[in-house]
């Protein structure tokens, strides 16, 4: 391995770190990172194997534990987030499940905001209780509800901000303070904001989790996840849990994600600029009955957004007309924007949450979250903004 180190006497910006952090070249001096698609590693001697296992030689042992390509992705994510440590996982849900279960025991209690990504809600509401970990769901915007839900055995508070799909924003610093007063940790799912636009650890959160499947890959290719926090949290809780239970990121996916990071800030900035333009067009349109975009002054939490986010992000949520028929007619009339349930892709994606991602919830539970039959979520991609606006305006004509 040859390496010319990055300058150590000045802080580099994310755009630079995402391209150059953790560069490790093999003897061939390749420019693009090599992919170490290997499950195991060979030792020159029996003594070398012994030293690797007893920790005297800190090299790789087995790709369930760690792998050079996965390590490159992890180091870039750690540098971007400004975290002390982090571990990659096979998917966003593997990251969420590991971040929760690695630190919880039977008898503990979790408080979470009700407006969670569906599978995250399953982990808190269904999975944790099966192992004797009680949970309480609260309205994430209501700090009094967070405080009232705390019990002596509360160990973890969990939220996602902005939320899926209604783009509510919660006060991360305030909820972190409530957690710390109770001797608990705050875990934040930062997928919608991306690590470019929001830094939960700097706001006081203890652990941040990502589905790297979304903006970090950014081209809809692979699944992946990441958990970041203090060195102590990772070593005391996460490290052994991941090693022994095995939700490991494949080196191929890690390579894809590390290459995705090189363009992350460019992509997020471009998609965000387009999302802002689309939101402004939709806000003025007579067939749009409600519009939520985190970058607009009419967002109910605009002041909080200015405090904790660097921009409005790449998602726009709106209601077309007032029923499912209008929402479906609009979606079916789109010619460029795709109908899918993913997000953070180069391709713009329209989702009807009530019949797809949130179908499992009762109509009452959906209504409680602000998801009605007319609600649509648009993940803005990298196409030409004028082409997207034209696609949307033409489709609205059919409603
Ligand atoms: C997609 C997503 C997840 C789950 O990630 P996977 O990579 O699909 O497992 C978790 N939280 C949020 C907010 C998401 O959007």
Automatic annotation (TrEMBL):
GO molecular function list = carbon-sulfur lyase activity; pyridoxal phosphate binding; transferase activity, transferring alkyl or aryl (other than methyl) groups
Which chemical reaction does it catalyze? O-succinyl-L-homoserine + hydrogen sulfide = L-homocysteine + succinate
Please list the residues that carry the modification N6-(pyridoxal phosphate)lysine.
Answer: 214
In the record, biological process GO terms are: 'de novo' L-methionine biosynthetic process; homocysteine biosynthetic process; transsulfuration
- Superkingdom of source: Bacteria
Q: Which GO terms describe its cellular component?
A: cytoplasm
- Classification via Gene3D superfamilies: Aspartate Aminotransferase, domain 1 (3.90.1150.10), Type I PLP-dependent aspartate aminotransferase-like (Major domain) (3.40.640.10)
Keyword Ribosomal protein applies: no
What pathway does the annotation place this protein in? Answer: Amino-acid biosynthesis; L-methionine biosynthesis via de novo pathway; L-homocysteine from O-succinyl-L-homoserine: step 1/1
EC number, as in UniProt: 2.5.1.-
Annotated membrane-spanning segments are none
Please give the cofactor(s) recorded in the UniProt entry for this protein: pyridoxal 5'-phosphate
The EC category is transferase
Q: Which UniProt keywords apply?
A: Amino-acid biosynthesis, Methionine biosynthesis, Pyridoxal phosphate, Transferase
Keyword Transferase tagged: yes
One Pfam family assigned to this protein is Cys_Met_Meta_PP
- By its UniProt entry, which NCBIfam families does this protein fall under? O_suc_HS_sulf, PRK07504.1
Identify its protein family. Belongs to the trans-sulfuration enzymes family. MetZ subfamily.
> What does the subunit section of this Swiss-Prot or TrEMBL entry state?
Homotetramer.
Q: What does this protein do?
A: Catalyzes the formation of L-homocysteine from O-succinyl-L-homoserine (OSHS) and hydrogen sulfide.
**What name appears for this protein in its UniProt entry?**
O-succinylhomoserine sulfhydrylase
């Amino acid at each position: 391995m040859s390496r010319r180190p990055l300058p150590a006497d000045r802080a580099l910006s994310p755009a630079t770190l995402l391209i150059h952090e953790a560069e490790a070249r093999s003897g061939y001096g390749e420019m693009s990172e090599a992919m170490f698609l290997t499950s195991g590693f060979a030792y020159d001697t029996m003594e070398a194997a012994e030293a690797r296992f007893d920790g005297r030689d800190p090299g790789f042992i087995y790709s369930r534990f760690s792998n050079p390509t996965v390590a490159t992705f992890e180091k870039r994510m750690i540098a971007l987030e400004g975290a002390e440590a982090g571990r990659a996982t096979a998917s966003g849900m593997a990251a969420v499940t590991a971040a929760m279960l690695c630190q919880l025991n039977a008898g503990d209690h979790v408080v979470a905001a009700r407006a969670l990504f569906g599978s995250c809600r399953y982990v808190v509401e269904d999975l944790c209780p099966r192992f004797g970990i009680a949970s309480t769901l609260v309205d994430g915007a209501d700090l009094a509800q967070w405080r009232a839900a705390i019990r002596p055995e509360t160990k973890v508070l969990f939220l996602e901000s902005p939320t899926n799909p209604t783009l509510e924003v919660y006060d991360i610093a305030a909820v972190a303070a409530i957690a710390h007063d109770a001797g608990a940790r705050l875990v934040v799912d930062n997928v919608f904001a991306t690590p470019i636009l929001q830094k939960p650890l700097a706001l006081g959160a203890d652990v941040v989790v990502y589905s790297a499947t979304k903006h970090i890959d950014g081209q809809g290719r692979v699944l992946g996840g990441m958990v970041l926090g203090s060195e102590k949290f990772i070593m005391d809780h996460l490290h052994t849990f991941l090693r022994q239970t095995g939700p490991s990121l494949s080196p191929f996916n890690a390579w894809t994600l590390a290459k995705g990071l090189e363009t992350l800030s460019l992509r997020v900035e471009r998609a965000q600029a387009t999302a802002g333009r689309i939101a402004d067009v939709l806000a003025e349109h007579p067939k749009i009955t409600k519009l939520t975009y985190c970058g607009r002054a009419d967002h109910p939490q605009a002041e909080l957004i200015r405090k904790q986010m660097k921009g409005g992000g790449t998602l726009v949520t709106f209601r077309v007309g007032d029923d499912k028929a209008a929402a479906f007619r609009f979606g079916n009339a789109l010619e460029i924007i795709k109908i899918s349930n993913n997000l953070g892709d180069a391709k713009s994606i329209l989702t009807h949450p009530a019949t797809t991602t949130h179908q499992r919830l009762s109509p009452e539970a959906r209504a409680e979250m602000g998801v009605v039959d007319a609600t649509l979520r648009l993940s803005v991609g990298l196409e030409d903004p004028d082409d997207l606006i034209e696609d949307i305006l033409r489709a609205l004509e059919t409603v």
